[in-house]
Fold these 3 entries.
Entry 1:
Amino acid sequence: MKRLIETFFTPIEDAGDVIVVGAGSTGVAAALAAARLGLRVTLVDPASHVGGTLVSGIPILGYHDGEKQVVAGIADEIVRELHRQGGTEDYPIRSTIVNVDTERLKYVLLNLLEKAGVQLRLHTLFTGVKTEADCITHVIVEGKGGRRALSARWFVDATGDADLAVAAGVPTEKGRREDGKTQAMTLMFGIGGINKDAFNAWGGYARMTELWQNVSAGFRNPRKTDFSHFWGPASRTGEWAFNGTRVLEADGTDSVSLTRAEVEGRRQVFELVDDFLRPRVPGFERAFVAWTAPKIGVRETRRIVGAYTLTREDIWNFVKFRDAICHGSYPIDIHSPTGSTTEFPDQHFYGGRHWTIPYRSLVPLQIRNLLVGGRCLSATHEALAAVRVMANTIATGEAIGTAFALCDQHQTEPLALNPKLLRAQLRAHGAWLPEKKS
């Protein structure tokens, strides 16, 4: 804090080699990969914990293509550590769905970051950026100690909303092509006090879904089909997590709209428990809201325009890119921005079929020392609906952290990095990246 940036009149701090903005699934993986390869990393997030949507109560999805595990590396390591600590009973080698104990997962992630030597800054909000000659030089953050300008050589946008990228001047897109509207939001919540034996004896999920379809017209929740089943590890006795709320036409990049979504999500939670489950569904007579996620789940906001834009056709046709940094199997899953429908053509997917994400989709236009992963990578509205699940967002983060370490080693920039080097390094650290045959 010896100098001031003339433009901002803000104290400067050296944040090391890499600054990662956003400590969700992508940011944690990027920080771990870079730090383990010898870079000094600072990880910034406004929350009080790490994990983001990864610890919202929804399972980690996307590991398995119906025949084999296709996402490994750090995404697999996290689950193995969760197993060791009793935080899950599921295995990526067997299933695409891994239920997690979210509190245990927060603890696991913190321990991994500490062991890797990542400098963690929670309660720290990204507010701006300084650029020179097509490079970011500083990110501006606000915290309890006031405003700071953090300097580094490499920068990672893991915000989910492309906040860093758009502030630096990277072109972005948002929502579907015809009207810019984004997928519906969902607030995850947990219900405790469930008598699961009584519920299953009554008819379980299938009968509850039928009942909901018959009465849902009288509820504010526009989701009229089902609740995406129930989630959570079996160790959480009498408790299930619900992916059942639906908030339409909300913009995750606007604080007023996002506030409305948070309020609406919580109204739907208590309406569902008080007016549907407790009075109508056997096994839920003594049920209560055990928890709600720290913030509403946002499926889509901005996406960068990168060196390559991943398309619906790439996903649908299971394209294997030569610069692929991870594989995935999750179907195109579009929760309508304006209605109750969900596009989920799972019959086309699985059965041993899998698609890939190219490294070029992480490389933004215009800024030379920035990489972008997670749900704000370069993809169309439809392609994002498949790649946004967390096994893949973790994998994109791992690729970014690894890429910056290689850029440092070979004295090059992300766009010029040889993807063969990146794929080899990822493979050496456990990623599932079979050689392309052709």
Entry 2:
Amino acid sequence: MASPIPLGAYTLPGRVSDPRAAIGQAETAEQLGLQTLWLSERWGTKDLGVLAGAISQVTSTVRIASGITHLQARHPAILASLAMTGQALSGGRMIIGVGRSVDAMWGAVGLPKSTNASIVDHADIFRRLCRGEKVRYDGPAGTFPSLRLNDVPDQPVPPLVLAAIGPKALALAGRHFDGVLLHPFLTPEAVRCSVAAVREAEKQAGRPAGCVRVYATLVVACDLPAEQELAVVGARAVTYYQIPGFGERLAAVNGWDPEPLARLRTHPRLVGIRGSADSVLTREELSEVASVLPTRWTEEAAAIGSAGCCHDTFDRYREAGADELVLHGSTPDQLGWLASQP
């Protein structure tokens, strides 16, 4: 691997009707020497447990991570059971990445929204169950009179990684989690500030310096024609910036004027769409919408251009303090250029 920073990648980014492609992508990820293969769970064809189990049987070294699932979307015993079954099948290669998501989604599906208190308690319950402990609990995470896994493999508790953008979530990760997954489309300077917030929270909590692994997510489109580059990078950008409030948070973290978000959201292609745009629009349609975003929003916060340019971008994120990069947008079978020298 040419880059001095460890690299991971997503399998099956965006809309997927046939998840079987994940098998070949996982095998390629291992051949490329990637550290981690990330699964962006979506209900339908991207179930974490099924995919992790399948991938564990065609790989032997790459770690298998959820990026992300949600603590309250499964009963605590079910999530712990999934994790420890995955640990047994993979030889201890699971990473459980979790996030908060948006409150409106939880209201729509009839599940409780996350709070900082419930997230911390869910994490504690998860770890205790994975260690084989009996758990009795009544608090912000719910009411569980008596929980225990019947059988626990001789494997460690998987690392828990929290997806975070704002200062409160970053501090939560620094105090209570094993890692933090930073959102796509953060500039190197935004990553630098995020790392500083995590390290300060570690220090305030009395934890060892650097114990929280920082995963910086980076959308990558290398050595592609301009229209394909836009399809990869622009399509991902639209899915994040279209969400009211969420797009503003990303712009604020990067120090950008949020004015272009209004033009994006009034684009004719997005009118009437509720939820994620990439669940409705094709990549080509998303590319059309992405054309209204400022060029700097992708140039400063994604890896595009030649292999050398992409490796230079990796170095900027390493210098900003990221411990590992999570490549997004391009699947492992599109990352053969990683073997080239920067």
Entry 3:
Amino acid sequence: MKKEKEDIRVPKKQLLWQLPFLLLLIVGTIIIVRQHRNMPYQRIEGMVFGTVYHITYQSDKDLKEAIDSELKKVDQSLSPFNKESTITHVNNNDDVVAGDDKMFREVFEKALTISAATDGAFDITVAPLVNAWGFGFKNGTPPDSRQVDSLRALMGYEKVSMGRDGRIKKADPRMMLDCGAIAKGYGCDVVARLLRYHDVENFIIEIGGEIVSRGKNAESNPWRVGVTKPTDDSLAVNVEREAIINVTDMAMATSGNYRNFYYKDGKKYAHTIDPKTGYPVQHNILSATVLAKDCATADAYATSFMVMGLERAQKLLEAHSELMAYLIYTDEKGQYQVWYSPDLEKKIKKEE
């Protein structure tokens, strides 16, 4: 004998009783959405790491003081120009437990990971050579081959580590750390975390050209950023765009030698030092733009690709699907050429 199906119909009285609550929920949701849409976009700027930052975010809160406070912590952790920073104490071989500084620990560990992935093209121990070549502390006196060889002996990411006690161990006490190729990107990440903590859904952060974005801009469109055409214009008077890239919910960093250089005795020196040779890079990549989930990673890989050159960068990108890159280089005839990751195609709007 078949069992009769249960009558699961909801009584009309119960439905009528629930309707006011459903209506209230819908109306409340509409009001919240409208309030969010009408919330203003704030634009702030300031100085950090010797450069300017620009931040646009949608919120009714004034977060500049909190943002500056977070960036000050990054400076206190990673700036070699700050006499009391963690990295300065490490470089001076002071008795400091660097591992207690969460920011320093995070960046140090990420730097070693990327150093290994790039076979040393990224190396935070490059500081002595950077300083000797006139960058960082601007001494302006290019080293000779003997000096380069002696300084290279003080380099090598595999020669530094963090012990269980949180102290940095060096193979040679004269070794120095330099986070200049990752600190700005990390600073962007720190600000992004702060904004998300304050429930900010739409923002774009730019520190010295490194970028993190989320959500949409004031016109309800995706955030887009231009890639600059390489020109021998150190003052950036004539800026032309090579392409526009959708960077929504991504981080982007660019490294290039076409503006960062100086002349000495009639010779042009680029600012990117190859840790393997000890000399400024001499290859055909003019700029490397990298997109990644976080800006510290994008920043470090952008520098790495400038060191590695086009072919090595392409091979590494094939093995790292989490990264995308837009590389501008010169061909054998000296003409500008562009190569970019296949997955980046849908994010690019080329300038007409």
